[in-house]
């Protein structure tokens, strides 16, 4: 085929940029120039249709607005009811915690009266070590918090949501580093840690022994004088300093005197019972 007879058709994008308007606009403009503006019943019908359309759209907007206003009190009432229930449950939990603390102190007083001084002192020391009693002493306070939210100016979404957010494993690393530095007792947001404590995530929340803790997270520890230096020089301390520099996370370690850490909740004890002994019978092959 001769190249001179070949016809090149412009692609879609080229045609779109060359003629951005739909051809129908040019046809309508040409007819208007030839016939003039619509007159008579055509002009009247056009105005009537436009007016009816505007009225219909306005009516729909008014109906939607009134429906939204009608639903708002029920939503607000439901939300207020949920907030009220949460506050009531929290108040009841605090009251029960106070009552449990009072009963625990009463039981401890009766126990100390029944035991001798030596045995009572040993028992109090064991309770302090296992987290079942309050402890007082000097130590450190570690305060860690999320980085400020980076809001994208175009999409409005948070940028890098996980890199600058404190996770459950971060609190685990800090607690383990404090134990390694010689901590004798640790509490996270007044939740005392024991040998059976768990720090885990539930969605976006962090649970310590199945109780939620909120930011900023404050880890208090009672222990030796050089505990803060050991924490700063540990791999965990270096990691958090890097997170502060790179992601804007907050991480502070300071000495504290006369800290008071609360007692942990009473553990749920489980007892094991030995299975009944089964006398071994000779196998068929042993006969």
UniProtKB/TrEMBL annotation:
<feature type="region of interest" description="Disordered">
    <location>
        <begin position="265"/>
        <end position="287"/>
    </location>
</feature>
<keyword id="KW-0812">Transmembrane</keyword>
<keyword id="KW-0175">Coiled coil</keyword>
<comment type="similarity">
    <text>Belongs to the UPF0749 family.</text>
</comment>
<keyword id="KW-0472">Membrane</keyword>
<keyword id="KW-1133">Transmembrane helix</keyword>
<feature type="transmembrane region" description="Helical">
    <location>
        <begin position="48"/>
        <end position="65"/>
    </location>
</feature>
<dbReference type="InterPro" id="IPR010273">
    <property type="entry name" value="DUF881"/>
</dbReference>
<feature type="coiled-coil region">
    <location>
        <begin position="86"/>
        <end position="113"/>
    </location>
</feature>
<dbReference type="Pfam" id="PF05949">
    <property type="entry name" value="DUF881"/>
</dbReference>
<feature type="compositionally biased region" description="Low complexity">
    <location>
        <begin position="274"/>
        <end position="287"/>
    </location>
</feature>
<protein>
    <submittedName>
        <fullName>Uncharacterized protein</fullName>
    </submittedName>
</protein>
